[in-house]
What we know:
By secondary structure, the chain is an alpha/beta fold. About 55% of the residues lie in helices and about 10% in strands. It contains eleven helices and five strands; from the N terminus they run βαβαβαββαααααααα. The chain has helices spanning about 25-40, 60-70, 85-95, 125-150, 175-200, 200-210, 215-235, 240-245, 250-255, 260-265, 270-280; strands spanning about 10-15, 45-50, 75, 100-105, 120. Strands 2-1-3-4-5 form a five-stranded parallel β-sheet, with helices on both faces. Helix 3 (about 85-95) links the parallel strand 3 and strand 4. Helix 1 crosses helix 4, helix 7 packs antiparallel against helix 10 (about 260-265) and helix 9 (about 250-255) crosses helix 11 (about 270-280).
Amino acid sequence: MSNKPTNKKNKSCGIVMPISPNDGCSAEHWADVYKIVKDILSTADYDVKLVSEADDIGIIQKRIIQNIYNNDIIVCDVSAKNPNVMFELGLRLAFDKPTVIIKDNKTDYSFDTSVIEHIQYPRDLRFNLINEFKDKLLKKVNGTLEASEKDKDYTTFLKHFGNYKIAKLDEQEVSSQDYLINAIEELKVEMISLKNRSINDSLRTRRLRDLKTFDESRVAVMRSVVKKYFDDYLKANPIRRYKELLIVKDEIYEYLENNDEVREICTNGQVISELLDELIYSNKN
């Protein structure tokens, strides 16, 4: 099989994956995973981007949904079972468009998607096993895309269970686009709430101790710096409501973590995450 996509170059490949600390993995770990996936697929001339990325400026939620729908193929990393990732995977499977699922070897299969082949990689990103993973991933992406182009009845998931009319974003099956986006926001908030309720007391106590290891004056400085850039983010994006902030929390975290001043004063991603949680919760009312 060729290592190039079927119709030459610039087939779009969207990536759905965790980007902020999760399940003991740092933001840097997920950045390394993204680079591995992007590098191998770029050798075959795929245009690889996170589904949250775009060249234009617009509403983040709308951009993500449009990219999930429009990308020629999606690679979804379900490692650590991040709620946002699982939700976005659900959207793509509902559209029944070409999708490849990957996961690390520390993450169990989810019942609903276990019928779909998962390409596995080692969480410790060992070199020899990562090379095997890259070969398998490229073959799977090429094969999935070719199958979808050759077979008009191709299905990733949905049609295995019956005949369904697949949703299209240009079909108005709701009263307005705003209603659709709000409904999706509500679902994502529910998923995030379910995850938060499942976190045990010991974990919450451990997170609080991270900030308590610093004296009050240092914590005050960290809060001030994080709030400064948090406010800058809000000025650049039309986000005000608590539930909207929850939806884009990972993107805000990435914005803060990539800032040199924030990273220097906070020393680690866990502290940034805690301070971001405080700021988001302060916008609840």
